[in-house]
Amino acid sequence: MIYKTVVDVLMTLALLALMGFQFWGDAAHEWIGAGMFVLFILHNALNASWWRTLFKGRYTPVRTLLTAVDLLTLLAVLGLMVSGVILSRRMFAFLPIKGGMSFGRLLHMASSYWGFVLMSLHLGLHWEALYTRIWKKRPGKGWIVPAALTALYGGFAFFKRNLPIYLFLRTQFVFLDFEEPKPLFYLDYLAMMGLFIFLAHYGAKRLKRTKERPAL
Amino acid sequence: MKKWICLLLAATLLSLAACGGNPAPVENTAPPASESAADPTPETDDSSNSVEEPAPPEDAPPVEPVEIETEDGAAGQKGSGKEETAAPVSGEVPAPLAPEAVPNEDAQSDAPSPAAPKPEPENPRILIAYFTWADNTVVEDPSAVDVDASTSASVLVPGNAAKMAGWIQAKVGGDLFSIQVGEPYSSDYDECLDRAADEKAENARPALTSHVGNMEDYDIVFLGFPNWWYTVPMAVLSFVEEYDFSGKTVVPFVTHGTGGLSSTIRDLTAALPDDVTVLEAIGVYRPEVDNSRSAVEAWVDGLNLDIG
Fold this sequence. Notes:
The complex is a heterodimer. Chain A is an all-alpha fold. Chain A is 75% helix and 0% strand. Chain A has helices at residues 2-19, 21-46, 48-52, 61-87, 101-125, 127-135, 144-160, 163-167, 182-212. In chain A, helix 1 runs antiparallel to helix 2, helix 4 (61-87) packs antiparallel against helix 5 and helix 7 crosses helix 9 (182-212). Helix content of chain B is 33%, strand content 10%. In chain B, strands 1, 2, 3, 4, 5 and 6 form a 6-stranded parallel beta sheet that branches. The longest helix of chain B is centred in the N-terminal third of the chain and has 20 residues, at 2-21. The termini of chain B are far apart. The chains are: A mainly alpha, B alpha/beta. Chain A binds chain B through residues 2, 5-6, 9-10, 13-14, 17, 22-28, 31-32, 87, 89-90, 93, 98-103, 105, 134-135, 171-176, 178-179, and chain B through 2-3, 5-6, 9-10, 13-14, 17, 20-21, 23-25, 27-28, 151, 189-191, 193-194, 197-198, 200-202, 227, 230, 256-260, 262-263, 266.
């Protein structure tokens, strides 16, 4: 399924572009956001089996975790869609939507940071599948050290960049540094993504193991 | 093989993003030809002669720069009574004849002019221009405004930028000037946000009804405004582009809702000629404006302006 991989990689890149709103301008943000929406539909179509089996089979702890993160991600995506359309001045300007700007703004702010966290977790929970699909082998054990270091720095960046404040709407506006060099910004965002991939990937592994242990 | 295709696609998307992104900042300063035709906001054109007062009319003798100082007490000046007089600043006469500020001819100063000439002679001449929501909206019933809501308080005169402008004037002298658009913004936060977002997206230049008649006389221009959608209100760009700022020093002061200076200074600087010196701006969190007088004064001190 090469298409699956292509869509997943594109979504990851689009997410990073969208998080760096201040670097690419309003117009690009709208276009990439709309593109993300299309990719989201493709992603769901290509993984339609998730929907078909949602109410089937046994829910192991790992599957429960996966499904919970997936559903929360879906919620964030819906929030982003609704607020994105309200805020849109270009792509969806033809829609007769008036007002709701302050609501749309806050919804967009909260759901974008939740979306970033949840999508990274989602990526982490499916890390092995994606890795195997691309490299035709499972991720080696040697990854844990660089992964842990990345996650450590990611945790630092998470607080340095005030993400908790945005996630819980403790502020009205995001502080955007328009002058910051892009590499610095993306280094931090990649590391934060790494943090959640790390937590989800190794967390799910551990969950699987502890579940299996009593059975042995 | 497949992984290479993925990598290739990834690289393509990245470069696309880069290309798609780059024109955007430019758009801020020099609108693409296709859009620039529509720029001078059609909606403001047809109403440029609208007679609605941008602010509650004040018939009292308006030019009384001293009153600004009475307003210093700052802290809780939110009630509606005093402000009417405390804003000698707002050029409430939209008629094109009045707002010409001509400090040389002091005789004119009894006309309600937005730029109140300050008597003291200064070496470099200072203009303190500001754009504030309160002077650019119509509040039907000021007493009905819930002053506890931080967004609502902004619609009552004097606006946040006007308060800061008053403190700056008390410190360095100079003339006050309120930038006013022909078509007032809604006093409803949501509607105002909506229009501001449209104007930003269109890179519009709302028509102004207040004008500085003698801009060439000023060496230093303090310029105050709120952070709207991470940049300057488009009316500020209308103002900046109306005059020749060549060789002047511009000192921005900004009110914001936690977003900080965002892109305001960058976009403002881009709209100014290259030989303008833009000094370090101050950004004040909106709910803290009332208590920011000492911060504003410290900031002015720190600028090391070369004034008499």
